[in-house]
Amino acid sequence: MAEKAQYEELIRQFSAFGAVKRELGRILPAECPAGSAAVLTLLGRHGDMRMSKLAELLAVDMSVTSRHVAHIADRGWIERSPDPADKRSRILRLTPEGQAQLDELSERTTQLLAHRLSDWTDDEVGQLTRLMARLRASFDDCRSAHARTAAPPAVEQTTRTPAITT
User: Fold this and answer.
1) HTH marR-type domain spans which residues (predicted)?
2) Helices 34-46/62-74 angle, 10° precision
């Protein structure tokens, strides 16, 4: 297990990663904020789905998901159709316009990352990708475990590590 100082440095790096996220956000078109981009990305990756599944994947409340979905539906990027299994539910599906928007987002982010990481080797980019996927999976495991337990594990308080801001 890593030492406390390593976790403290990791927290500082997470906080600094906010700058990376902000730069990625700045390249998004004005009509497609980060929440909308996340919805398009998930629909592109996972295919048609119910709103409840989308909310789960976004790890946000259903009301937040509904606002994102309404925003992109108003732009014609998704369609909402009744779920044949439950007429009260809606199935979300990318439209051709939504796929074109997703393709544009992918191109923009790919170009930015290729530019910023141009001095990285393919192995380094692959290693970062694997480690980030593993980190995400660890937090997905925690979220699932949290749903089964009443409280998250206790965290030791420290004044030496700044709060994470993004």
Assistant:
1) 1-137
2) 90
**Each residue of 124-141: pLDDT tens digit?**
999 999 999 999 899 876
**Helix (H), strand (E) at residue 83:** strand 78-83
Look at residue 11 in the predicted model and tell me its pLDDT.
92
In terms of domains, do 132 and 113 share one?
no
Tokens of 44: 């592109």
CA neighbor of 44 nearest in space, from 52, 127, 36, 30: 36
By DSSP bridging, strand 86-94 and strand 49-50 are antiparallel
Q: Nearest 5°: CA angle at 51, between 18 and 139? A: 40
- Characterise 100 by phi-psi region: left (phi > 0), alpha (psi -120 to 50), beta (else): alpha
Rounded CA gap, 151 and 145, in Å? 10
Q: Domain range spanning residue 140?
A: 1-19+124-166
Q: Is the pLDDT of residue 163 over 80?
A: no
Say if pTM beats, i.e. exceeds, 0.85.
no
